[in-house]
Amino acid sequence: MKDLLATIKIAVPEKIYIKDPESSELGKKIIEKSIIQINDIGFDNFTFKKLGAIIGSNESSIYRYFESKHKLLLYLTSWYWAWIEYQVVLETYSLSNDEEKLKKAIQIVTRTTKEDSNISHVNEVILNRIIINENSKSFLTQEVDQENKEGYFIIYKRLVHRLKDMILQINPHYKFASSLASTIIEGSLHQHFLKDHFSSITDCNNDEDTLTFFSQLTINILK
What we know:
- The protein is mainly alpha-helical.
- The chain has a single domain (2-222), classed as Tetracycline Repressor, domain 2.
- Helix content is 64%, strand content 0%.
- It is built from eleven helices and no strands.
- Helix 6 packs antiparallel against helix 11 (207-222) and helix 10 runs antiparallel to helix 11.
- It is globular.
């Protein structure tokens, strides 16, 4: 699975970037080092000037790829959700039992990344931590509606719809499939955040607890 995922070209909506960072070594270095720096200092403290100093290039060269650090965060979050979507598709494809398929999908979207793949310029372990801590900053903005119209969140929404369809396979009459699907994804990020920062208000102390919680919650609701 690791080798297979490494051969896949992750597609991010073209409007997010000015120049595809996958098209050059500098672009790949921008992605690689931005992941490391955002994880180290947080998105609020991250700037293109600081990134330029790390990659040995001036700030203006980064602006040739992304018009703002917000667009870079959108790129990273879109890349991550596309990577998760590929895993959902690949790991559930051969499963014929609807409940097993949904549980496997829940496992994929709720687990933390333990091992980096062979995609050299993207450390998915570190990117996973960024998603847990910073994902909401990609859409909690004044521009969210316009960016949504332009398709910036299409990959994330597509993943929610995949989960929704799996939910409806088990109970086609359930009225809140989209709400449940988005709650699983966003709720798992929140539980991982609580585990790391406010452990006294969560019972999800590891990936297994998080999977069990959301699996039980979902299956019991659909009965």
